[in-house]
Design brief:
The structure holds 2 protein chains of 2 kinds. Chain A is of the alpha/beta class. Chain A has a domain at 48-165: 3-Layer(aba) Sandwich (Rossmann fold), CATH 3.40.50. Chain A has helices at 37-46, 58-67, 102-111, 122-127, 157-173, 182-190; strands spanning 27-29, 32-34, 51-55, 90-94, 117-121, 148-150. In chain A, α2 (58-67) links the parallel β3 (51-55) and β4 (90-94). Chain A starts with 26 loop residues before the first strand and ends with a helix. By secondary structure, chain B is of the alpha/beta class. A 5-stranded mixed beta sheet of chain B has the order 1-2-5-4-3. Chain B has a two-stranded parallel ribbon with strand order 6-7. Chain B is elongated. Chain B starts with a helix and ends in a 41-residue tail after the last strand. Classes of the chains: A alpha/beta, B alpha/beta. The interface between A and B is medium-sized, with 11 and 13 residues.
């Protein structure tokens, strides 16, 4: 006799209908669509971000949950997690960065090609967290510029997803000339990065 | 008959007399002190003496007592007799202004890294150490962070409001 199915037997309606990503604004007509190049590039970039996980402690464990099937970062076009900085777009720093580790983080950031983004996950990477101590870097923004901070100790995967969506937002809306702007150069110079 | 604290103490007083002092047995672990110049002689004796055979250096560390003028820094050796399974603790005290202590690396190879660590955190200058440089902290660090005159908290941090921590 087959066992009765007990779980997930009710049909649950979707809270919001699943749709595809809408295209950028533009003019369309019979057989053509015209829009800004920056919008198309932004759309392509933001849905294929390659993250570089720099995990040093418990936030890294939470990141593994994020990458696994339940939370599934791959839904956002980021299944290609790579440990090779030269091919990556997003540096995800997760965990306590000791002062001795700081040059390594900076080196990894320098090896990444522009355009590059940084996400600081958790209290330690964002501010030093509870490790207010002589040996711990008080936030990675002391050595590299950070785009998005995710608070929490450690943050839940949903929080990181939210941070990731914020990164996608930044990536999608970034002007193609931003990395050549004076303001950006000043920012890099303030970190001693040329 | 197996080795006891009384026998160890008897051997040491026979050899060194009043040069070893401050005997105590916290949690039944024999603890004693000597002048710092004597540290290698005492360690060598504990190592060589056939009935003692303290041939394993479990731990080597330092303690900072800022209120003890002239002997602010204690260097503590934890020794283990693996035959009779007995541990002892041996301390020497040194002046923080001139923290020179003879290195035990010739006797115990394991003292090498432990002395580097002790130097790294307390600035104890181990005379005769083959490679006395920082081991855990960043090389460019210019102070010894475990000395009590240095605050525990990172001083570069500006976002901490003392009022929130119940401080003035």
């Amino acid at each position: 006799m087959p066992r009765p199915v007990q779980y997930n037997i009710k049909d649950k309606p979707l809270e919001t209908p699943i749709g595809v990503v809408t295209g950028p604004e533009g003019f369309s007509g019979e057989g053509f669509f015209a829009t800004k190049l920056s919008d198309v590039v932004g759309l392509a970039r933001k849905n294929s971000i390659w993250p570089l996980p720099f995990a040093t402690s418990c936030c890294g464990i939470e990141f593994m949950a994020l990458m696994a099937s339940h939370y599934d970062l791959a839904r956002f076009g980021s299944e290609r997690v790579s440990f090779s900085p030269r091919q990556c777009d997003l540096l995800m720093v997760m965990g306590t960065i000791a002062k001795k580790m700081a040059p390594v983080v900076k080196q990894v950031y320098l090896q990444m090609a522009e355009p590059r983004w940084v996400l600081a996950m958790g209290a330690c990477a964002s501010s030093g967290g509870i490790f207010d101590s002589y040996s711990v870097l008080q936030g990675i923004d002391q050595i590299i510029p950070v785009d998005v901070y995710v608070p929490g100790c450690p943050p839940r995967p949903e929080a990181v997803l939210d941070g990731f969506i914020k990164v996608q937002d930044l990536v999608g809306k970034e002007s193609l000339r931003r990395r050549h702007s004076e303001q950006y150069n000043d920012l890099m110079n303030s970190y001693g990065i040329k | 008959m197996s080795l006891t604290n009384d026998i160890i103490k008897q051997h040491l007083t026979e050899k060194f007399g009043a040069e070893v002092y401050d005997w105590s047995e916290p949690y039944s672990m024999l603890t004693f002190t000597s002048k710092k110049d004597l540290n290698l002689k005492v360690l060598q004796f504990l190592y060589d003496e056939p009935s003692l055979q303290f041939r394993f250096l479990t731990d080597l560390c330092a303690v900072h007592y800022p209120e003890k003028k002239g002997e602010e820094i204690a260097v503590v050796y934890h020794l283990h007799n693996l035959v009779d399974n007995i541990r002892i603790r041996y301390k020497v005290f040194t002046d923080a202004a001139k923290p020179d202590v003879y290195s035990a690396t010739a006797l115990y190879a394991s003292a090498n890294w432990m002395e580097r660590e002790t130097y790294d955190f307390y600035g104890v200058n181990f005379i005769g150490h083959p490679n006395l440089k920082r081991i855990l902290n960043a090389d460019e660090m210019d102070y010894f962070p475990m000395l009590k005159q240095y605050p525990l908290e990172e001083q570069s941090r500006i976002d901490k409001d003392d009022e929130m921590f119940g401080r003035d």
